[in-house]
Amino acid sequence: MRLTIAIDGPAAAGKGTLSRALAEAFGLAHLDTGLIYRATGRRTLDGTPPLEAAQTLSAADLEADDLRTPDVARAASVVAALPEVRAALVDFQRAFARRSGGAVLDGRDIGTVICPEAEVKFFVTASDQVRAERRFAELRDSGHEVTLDGVLKDLRERDARDSARAAAPMMPAEDAVVLDTSGLAIDAVVAEAIRLVTEKT
Ligand code: C5P
């Protein structure tokens, strides 16, 4: 059976770590779809119109080294609210999901829009405070000048925009398993997710 795992949830909830761990455990390819929106948003900061940025995105754009900055995250969520931008990025993501060896995709609308037929869906979440602390530590450790309050404010603003937009808003799919990682070590979250995937496949 070709296995597709869909992982959605707000920023800094642990989607990336969980996705990489599941991809490794089950021998699947992994696509971080947030990177596609970040790369698109990044290009608009240089003055490229959003739709053009999405339509002409190249592999090199996905490898730019400043995709993890707060400014790019904000630009990503602004372009991600535009239906025409989302439409331009759908085929690439669905083609990736159909790879013969199976795949893990993580983002905001994977279980609801990109891969509604995925065999396993997770919605990974955590409290605002815990997520802000994690993202703050990551940004600080990679040399960014940030404050915990600033990071918390940015996350809340971005989550609000991602949840309130009309086009593919962030929400758990009806058949998603919700994992709250607030009080859990990542190892425990990964172990629980591996158990659930094994049980469902
Ligand atoms: O996951 P990450 O924080 O890198 O995503 C950056 C932004 O890209 C999100 O805040 C969201 O606006 C957008 N995004 C999206 N749909 C996805 C993945 C990301 O709208 N599947």
UniProtKB/TrEMBL annotation:
Main location, first listed in the record: cytoplasm
Enzyme kind, highest EC tier: transferase
Record localization: Cytoplasm
Record-linked CDD domains: CMPK
Keyword ATP-binding: yes
GO CC annotations on file: cytoplasm
Top-level taxon of origin: Bacteria
EC number(s) on file: 2.7.4.25
Domain Cytidylate kinase: 5-198
UniProt GO BP: pyrimidine nucleotide metabolic process
Classification via InterPro entries: Cytidylate_kin, Cytidylate_kinase_dom, P-loop_NTPase
Catalytic activity field: dCMP + ATP = dCDP + ADP; CMP + ATP = CDP + ADP
A Pfam family that the UniProt record links to this protein: Cytidylate_kin
This protein's UniProt keywords: ATP-binding, Cytoplasm, Kinase, Nucleotide-binding, Transferase
Record keyword ATP-binding present: yes
Residues that hold ATP according to the record: G9, P10, A11, A12, A13, G14, K15, G16, T17
An MF annotation (GO) of this entry: dCMP kinase activity
Stated family: Belongs to the cytidylate kinase family. Type 1 subfamily.
Protein name: Cytidylate kinase
